[in-house]
Amino acid sequence: MNEHDQQHFAEQRKLRVRVQAPSDAPIAPTTGLKEQSAENFYVRQLVRSQLRLAISVASGVLALLLGFAALVMAGSSMEQITLLGIPLSWWVLGVGMYPLIIVAGLLYTWSAVRNERRYRSIAK
Amino acid sequence: MMHSLSLAAVITISLATVLIAVFGLRLSRTTSDFYVASRTVKPWWNASAIGGEYLSAASFLGVAGLIVMTGQSGLWFPIGYTAGYLMLLLFVAAPLRRSRAYTIPDFAQIRFDSAPGVRKLTAWLVAVICWLYIVPQMHGASLTLSIATGLPGWVGPLIVATVVCLTVLSGGMRSVTFVQAFQYWFKLAALVIPTVFLLLTLRPFAENRHGQLELREQLQSVVGMSGYETVSVILALLFGTLGLPHVLVRFYTNPTGQAARKTTVIVLGLLSIFYLLPVTLGTLGLLYTPQLRESGNTDATVLLLPQQVFDSPVADLLTAVVVGGAFAAFLSTTSGLVVSLAGTLSQQFFAGTVRGFRISTLLATFLPVGIALLTSSLALAGAIGNVFAFTASTICPLLLLGIWWRNLTARGAMAGMSVGAISCALALLIAGPLPADTATWWAQLLRQPAAWSVPLAFLTMVVVSRATRRTVPSEVDRVMARLHVPES
């Protein structure tokens, strides 16, 4: 850096204004995305794949829950089979649903991370 | 004997809560600390805290109560509360964390490019939801303390409000995180101990054929909800959870979007373990305290079970443990709600200062105490179910469409939330005075509005957004990128 540059920077330094965001303003996004840019295209792809994943897991679980509700309502044979005096339908609803919900959560998390990894490898 | 032991339990849990909060005070210094614990809370801590906060009076007392009241239908409530967290994981957890918003109104502001109308409407809805959610906690406190100690009904809510104010004011979110993580494990223990004692004592009964037949007869004797009501409850709980303000505020304390997901999966496990206990106790309640159904006081099932089965010293000790756990439930849920409500109020009306946060805390706590003392208690889990229906009809469509649909406009969001809020609230208000045994189809539609009010809110949002498509925020692509692109 020569003398001329140093003088140049010294002049500019005075003009600098420290900018502070108002306290309620959202933090400014760091990337400037253009509607048609390639980056924006990849982001939309990511959003679409994550949404598809979330909807398929959600509709699976919802179908399962509503299916069981219908089965129990219909007074199926689940009422007749008992374990320790408690009907099978009580075991299914009281105990059996929870492991299914946890498994659905785990499967979703793994797939969501995979989608994000794919996005990173393409976008960079 | 029982009275003094239970009172000692209430005092112990209150003192422990305040002490942990004051211990946390030394770690909490800035405004950001007050709101979101500086986003440095580890997943396990955070998950325990979320569990502690989420397991309210409705879970601790209400689930068993509903099982005694409606039999098998009651089993759907804990399933819904847990599956609601799954929906939160699928659609909201990571993007909401990445939005870097403190509260739901903040999210609305970020998403709609600072359109003030949406922010204001969301803030009001958050306030209404928090207050509606705190009132049943106060009812629970009133019921528990008067049953266990014979004290008048207003003492319970007053204790809860005072302890919550002290904890929240002394340390904000950071201390609340410690307190709530502790309270999850305490609540779990407070139900595990009596459940194990009861099951060990009752094992011979369950093993003989006669006992099994009697059990089965009792379980099947109760008339549950109709098919429509069951479906509507499932929908309300599934989609209501992801809009609960006190649940969402916890997600801002995760360092990354992926950490938010990890936390949520742990929460699913913690909730699943916990709910096995009220389900067991409710089933035992059908056998030992079916008389509560006639008196309409089924929420007391968990509190009264030990005395039905055991004699004096054991029964008194177990009751005291349950009472302590119940107060942990009221305290943790109320403090979570108060933190998120105070955060919203202080940002909306006091420019987000620490002093404003303190004033808002007092407002957030003592207003619902007043409402609780003036109203009589509904079935706890049912009352909370109504709040879930309201949330599912208002905040849920805002978050789901806001996060996943770039064409949502500010006007669309406002129209959808208004339609959802008005239709759901009107239905519940009309259904309130109806006698409980009215089983006509329109009474069912009014009593459980979620099955139609949630789709109506979504539809309104989509249609109005389509009609005002020119006003899609210009920054929407940047916001979408911020919500969904993983942190490097």
Please tell me about this protein's structure:
- With 124 residues, chain A is mainly alpha-helical.
- Chain A has one domain (35-123).
- Helices cover 69% and strands 3% of the residues of chain A.
- Chain A has helices at 3-15, 38-73, 88-123, and strands at residues 82-83, 86-87.
- A two-stranded antiparallel sheet of chain A has the order 1-2.
- In chain A, helix 2 (38-73) packs antiparallel against helix 3.
- In chain A, 22% of the residues are buried.
- The model of chain A is unreliable at 17-32 (pLDDT under 50).
- Chain B has 488 residues and is mostly helical.
- Chain B has a single domain (2-380), classed as Hydantoin permease (Orthogonal Bundle), CATH 1.10.4160.
- Helix content of chain B is 80%, strand content 0%.
- Chain B contains 22 helices and no strands.
- The longest helix of chain B is centred in the middle third of the chain and has 53 residues, at 155-207.
- The N and C termini of chain B lie far apart (60 Å).
- The mean pLDDT of chain B is 82.
- At the A-B interface, helix 2, strand 2 and helix 3 of A face helix 5, helix 7, helix 10, helix 11 and helix 13 of B.
How does CATH name the architecture of chain B? Answer: Orthogonal Bundle
Q: Biggest interface between protein chains, with counts per chain?
A: A-B, 56 and 62 residues
Please state the structural category of chain B.
mainly alpha
Rg result of chain B: 22 Å
Low-confidence stretches of chain A: 17-32
Specify the overall morphology of chain B.
globular
Give average pLDDT of chain A, whole number.
Answer: 75
How many helical elements of chain B?
Answer: 22
CATH topology of chain B: Hydantoin permease
Distance between the termini of chain B: 60 Å
Major sheet of chain A: order of its strands?
1-2
Quaternary state of this entry equals heterodimer
Count the helices of chain A. How many? 3
Supply the number of structural domains of chain A.
Answer: 1
According to DSSP, the number of beta strands of chain A is: 2
Q: How does the overall form of chain A come out from the CA principal axes?
A: rod-shaped
Q: Into which percentage range does the β-strand content of chain A fall?
A: under 5%
Order of helices and strands of chain B: HHHHHHHHHHHHHHHHHHHHHH
SS class of chain A: mainly alpha
Using only CA atoms, what is the Rg of chain A?
28 Å
